Amino acid sequence: MGFYFAQLLTGLANASSLFLIASGLSIIFGVTRIVNFAHGSFYMVGAYLAYTIVTALNGGIFGFWFSIIAAAAIVGVIGLLIEMTILRRIYRAPELFQLVATFGVVLIFQDATLAIWGAEDLLGPRAPGLDRAVRIMGEPIPEYDLALIAIGPAVLAGIWLLFHKTRWGVLVRAATEDREMVGALGVNQAWLFSAAFVLGAFLAGLGGALQIPREAVSLQMDLSIIGEAFVVVVIGGMGSVSGAFVAAVLISVLNAFAILIFPQISIVLPFIVMAVVLILRPYGLFGKPGSEHVGTEEPEQPLKLMSQKSTMVLLAAVMVLAFSPAVTADFTSILLVDVMVATLFAVSLHFMMGIGGMVSFGHAAYFGVGAYAAAMMVKFLGFGMLPAMLLAPFFAAAAALFFGWFCVRLSGVYLAMLTMAAAQILWGVTFQWQAFTGGDDGILGVWPAEWASSDKVYFYIAFVLCLGGIWFLRRVAHSPFGYTLRGIRDSQTRAEAIGVDTKFHQWMGFVVAGSLAGLAGVVFAFSKGSVFPDTLGIAQSIDGLIMVLLGGIHALAGPIFGAVAFVMIEDWVTRLDYWRFIFGGIILVVVLLAPDGIAGGVNRLIRAILPNQKGGAA
Amino acid sequence: MTMIRRTVLGALAALPLMGFGPQVAQAADTIVIGEVNSYTRLPAFTEPYKKGWQLAIEQINAAGGIDGKQLEVISRDDTGDPATAIRIAEELVAKEGAVLIFGTFLSNIGLAVSDFAQQKQVLFLASEPLSDAIVWSKGNKYTYRLRPSTHMQAAMLAEQAAKLDAVKWATVAPNYAYGHDAVKAFKSELSKLRPDVEFVEEQWPPVFKIDAGSTVRALEASKPDAIFNVTFGGDLAKFVREGSLRFLFEDRAVASLLTGEPEYLHPLGNETPDGWIVTGYPPADIDTDSHNAFAKAYTDKFGEAPKTGSIVGYNSVLAIAAALTKAGSTDTEALLAAMEGLEVTDSPTGPFMFRAADHQSTMGAYVGKTALVDGEPKMVDWTYADGAAYLPSEEEAAKLRPAE
């Protein structure tokens, strides 16, 4: 009995840590609608700052807690600077665009932290006065765990009081419900947003600072927490702080007990819980309908077919690409294959997000299924390259058919997070099921057939498949089916009123996007010769998301611009020292210069140069 | 006007392709070596490694190079992604004219590059990845590996663990191939030496995401006599801290893989556990002429003591230099022939050779115990374990490899 009680307490201590970071994320999203990828960076920087201040002060109990608060406060100030210099300028950009900026911030923070604090992990001191364990029912419980168990609910109570007993808090809640109305009532939104962002950053910094008696401060802290923090926010219901608390407790306690029975479960447990919760409750445990937010804005202009001149430019570009192997060296063809794969992947994601209005944080699932299906057909069934290439996208389609059925029942951020859960569960199975998928050692030896093994021949195979896929998606976007999808995106109610089966159309849109992502995965697998679980990972999904958003979600050409720019810039900057800093900086510059994405920026540029043109990148 | 505009636009479209044309071959008096590693993903380990190979290159070039030719390393960051690593490897070979590739840290990237090496027929020296698969189940003609593998280091620990009275063992290892391999090797080696041991609990925390408190509790619940630990880095610090808080290590022996390496031992600071049996590297205490010379040169150049990565980087280049000298050419077939049974007669860690049967080097590791000496974490009572003693015989090892 004592043992299980102790395990429960361990789970609750973890829950407090998780809650602190998730609460800040939830507040920021609730008020500003920013999906803040940089939240993990705030957490990490909070921990590093606390380490530095604690060790510099070395001032006993008072010094320790002062350092924690000071570190959190500094992170709050950093949050304010980021909000005022970057985010405030792009609130009018399409929904979700701000997450590109926070992605740039993540990159910059990673290299800045490395430069300031060095590569080695730093083990801070234990909390003075709380550095031992006490016996409860005969089991040793660290005193600091008990402190954390108290701090979590205390912070929750503090936030509750702030939100219910102060005018500012009431405004924040009002803005979470309906920010246009709050603005209409004359509240200065800019400062409300700044304050919410600062509070969120402060809480993330506090969460990180409070970790130093428990773990070594390391450069992996940011990415290792961010996924789980999002999961907690979504399970709790977007914008609901008490929901985040319940979700944090649920996940942490479940994990503490699950590892007694099935230790391997930890890698996917939060995502399984999230998937179950979202299937049963489409708005999370405490979220309200309408808290999903992403997607429904004012309807955009109808798609235009390209003007004759734009078509000529496009054809010229395709011709240049087609003839490039004749003038460039082999390794350039390799890079261009990567560019084409990324482009098809981004275009398929854009089809889902831009045309279908369904944001995905887990599009890599279908890319990875395509890659793995092809690799397994070659390795285990002895298929040739071409049959594997043709059949594998159907497996991606099947996966999309299955997961899509669940996903299209949700909307906005909840839908996005369910796609992420699907991808993570697939990733976990692939990672764990070593006998079948090779686990993280992957599947090797998936090279093109003999006749296609030269880089130039494979370039043309990739050229045909990727450009064919892009052309197909473009055709579908201009087809009645594509128009119906766009109609559903712009107004689900009206689409239903005229007799469209909205769920079915979205489901099929999901499948089309998934299949084409699978095709990209197939081309990828044969160009690299091996597949690893990374192809299904969050990083792959996020790369795609950044390409689409950076390129411009409102233009069909957006994902093409985005993918080409992303791959080319990354290939170039990784040659440099501190490239993440530079890459992050480039992303921020693009974001600030072109809040409508690269496609929008290019369009404006063309119109500025050629005033009589209407711009063709539709 | 329209025509002009189209021409201009067409030219603009072609612009990005410039600079991708074939490059002029390297000057004839240098030998270009390609290097790929996870510099941004795992700087704690790869920074010392980079310094190690830089020092070796500098020393070899200062001594006149290889047959009068200077060595030049072109080093790139793989960003922790196997697909990127392959693109870079391709570029190093095709564009930069690298005669061979070395490096990589993460096992999956090591495997991806080794598969690439086989496909493109270029020599690859896997410096750091520990995975047994690289030389055994997925070994190939073009891939050699320097560092003592998971299996070897686990066997070194099993040998020491067998001397303990402990019968009931629990294991904790990160949930990925490295952890799986290590636990499997430790179990089989220990059971060979001590058929009476039993394994009563396994914990598999996700790598870099350990829930240390719960894991410690789960281990404690099985009441083992001893624990075999494979966690490292941040997970290790958390595990040590939560474990000692909860008295997990009281009266229990712990055998711990890699924990004696300065990269992992140093961050533990004054919380370093006492008397854990570990594999690692005690840079300050090795008193051989070769090591003293290396350590002095390294400290003079970089202002810090060498770490395990430094040794790995340094020995990689020594091995490459020996192979180039022996081959007398940069032709891949000649290099492959030279690598078979290649002996490196003098290195900071002593002589080692590359076994022809499974392409594994016999470079060893240091086995000892952790201790706090004057407030500094150290390895004490250590001995050098020559890798050759912990490998299966060449005949057995050859059977572990796929037929060629």
Tell me the layout of helices and strands.
The complex is a heterodimer of chains A (618) and B (404).
Chain A lengths: L1 H31 L6 H19 L2 H26 L11 H21 L15 E4 L2 E4 H23 L1 H11 L1 H6 L4 H21 L11 H16 L4 H21 L7 H12 L27 H20 L2 H26 L8 H17 L4 H23 L4 H21 L1 H4 L5 E4 L8 H24 L1 H11 L1 H6 L4 H27 E3 L6 H14 L6 H16 L5 H15 L3 H13 L9
Chain B lengths: L1 H13 L15 E8 L5 H20 L7 E8 L4 H13 L5 E4 L3 H14 L2 E4 L16 E3 L4 H12 L6 E5 L4 H17 L4 E6 L8 H10 L4 E4 L3 H13 L7 E8 L1 H4 L11 E4 L8 H14 L5 H20 L4 H8 L3 E2 L7 E2 L11 E9 L2 E10 L8 H7 L4
Parallel strand pairs in B: 1-2, 1-3, 3-4, 4-5, 6-7, 6-8, 8-9, 9-10
Antiparallel strand pairs in B: 10-13, 11-12, 13-14
Helix pairs in contact in B: 2-11, 3-4, 5-6, 7-8, 11-12
Quick structural gist:
Chain A has 618 residues and is mainly α.
What share of the residues of chain B lie within helices?
40-55%
Q: Give the fraction of residues assigned to helices of chain A.
A: over 70%
| Secondary structural class of chain B | alpha/beta
Low-confidence stretches of chain B: 5-26
GO biological process, one term (chain B): amino acid transport
Family (chain B): Belongs to the leucine-binding protein family.
InterPro entries (chain B): BCAA_transport (IPR051010), Leu-bd (IPR028081), Leu_Ile_Val-bd (IPR000709), Peripla_BP_I (IPR028082)
Domain Leucine-binding protein (chain B): 45-369
Description:
Chain B: Pfam families: Peripla_BP_6. The complex is a heterodimer of chains A (618) and B (404). Chain A is mostly helical. Chain A folds into two domains: 2-280, no CATH class; 308-315 and 334-609, ABC transporter involved in vitamin B12 uptake, BtuC (Orthogonal Bundle), CATH 1.10.3470. Chain A is built from 25 helices and four strands. Chain A has helices at 2-32, 39-57, 60-85, 97-117, 143-165, 167-177, 179-184, 189-209, 221-236, 241-261, 269-280, 308-327, 330-355, 364-380, 385-407, 412-432, 434-437, 455-478, 480-490, 492-497, 502-528, 538-551, 558-573, 579-593, 597-609, and strands at 133-136, 139-142, 443-446, 529-531. In chain A, strands 1-2 form a two-stranded antiparallel ribbon. The longest helix of chain A is centred in the first third of the chain and has 31 residues, at 2-32. The radius of gyration of chain A is 25 Å and the shape is globular. Residues 614-618 of chain A have low confidence and may be disordered. Chain B has 404 residues and is of the alpha/beta class. Chain B folds into two domains: 30-149 and 287-364, 3-Layer(aba) Sandwich (Rossmann fold), CATH 3.40.50; 151-285 and 367-390, Response regulator (Rossmann fold, 3-Layer(aba) Sandwich), CATH 3.40.50.2300. Chain B is built from 13 helices and 14 strands. Chain B has a seven-stranded mixed beta sheet with strand order 7-6-8-9-10-13-14, sandwiched between helices. In chain B, strands 2-1-3-4-5 form a five-stranded parallel beta sheet, sandwiched between helices. A two-stranded antiparallel sheet of chain B has the order 11-12. Mean pLDDT of chain B is 91; it is low at 5-26. Classes of the chains: A mainly alpha (618), B alpha/beta (404). The interface between A and B is large, with 80 and 75 residues.
